[in-house]
Amino acid sequence: MLDVWEQLLCDLQQANPARLASKRKNFSSANTIEECLQQRAEFLVATHLTKAEIAYEFLPEGGVPQPDIALLNPATSGLRIEVTSRQTPSLEELRDELDMDLEGAGYQVEIQCEVAPVRISDAERESIRANVRGQATTGKPFRIVEGLKIGYPPVTVDMVISGVPAKDSPEEAGEWVTYEVAGAELTDHMREVEMRIVGKLTEDAKNRQAAAAPTLLLVEASRTGLASIRPDWVWEGKLQSLLGKANTNFVAIGVLFADQASLEARAVVVRGADCPSNVVAAIDQVREAFRPTPTYAQSPKQLLAYAVKSFRFGRT
After folding, report:
1. Which of 143, 229, 258, 296 is the most buried (most CB within 10 A)?
2. Is residue 316 situated within a structural domain?
3. CATH assignment at residue 219
4. Strand order of the sheet with strand 311-313?
């Protein structure tokens, strides 16, 4: 992961867009993972613009609020890009936290869920972690059943956490924490991203920024549940509907899904019906800048296969 961040910064340093130093300062002074991921999202967009040979600059910070990036090529001038990131603590974060909690305890732990929750609250995660830590002190196998509220309206589903001392395990030796999801219902995951998009489309401050110049709103949602599993054609329809219904000054919106272990990313971008003709080409160029490589692209068949089968993430 650190190698990826280093490569991202090196690529930007070579491109050297205006005000990069200010952005790097923000990145180095970030105090939370959310602040880091927000800056990474802006850097990732900038890197893809660089690879597509689209000239751009980071816009000044402080003073009058404005979007993050402005395009500079004569054919794309006038378009600005507002980048925002969305993260919801979910199974992956819980897995990572338990992995850290149990380091050196000599346990192999598996988390099983009927349905993948789009979020697990801080209170729920702390309760689960405390329970697992307590069980691990016994040195014996354990099984914990936690009820999680998910959905709109919420329903309760069971999360089962099983642990066995590594020395007693028939599995391969070593410590690890994994999770497995039996179901593939993703409505809540899409809704979580949609709510974020609508919030930004209609936020007063963001709308004032978008009123000053044609602006594309790009929401990075790689760590918002499993929303990335939905194929692009589904997201295109959702985004078009959200943009058409919202009272907003944004001329286009997009959702971005990035591979956390590489610089690969895919974006779904749509234009509004009243998008100014002088920025149509610019928006199309931005969309093309995020066209996935063959190794990262996912066909509908691949996406469906991934969604309907149980999946398991081992310790990394």
Report:
1. 258
2. no
3. 3.40.1350.120
4. 142-150, 155-165, 107-113, 176-181, 311-313
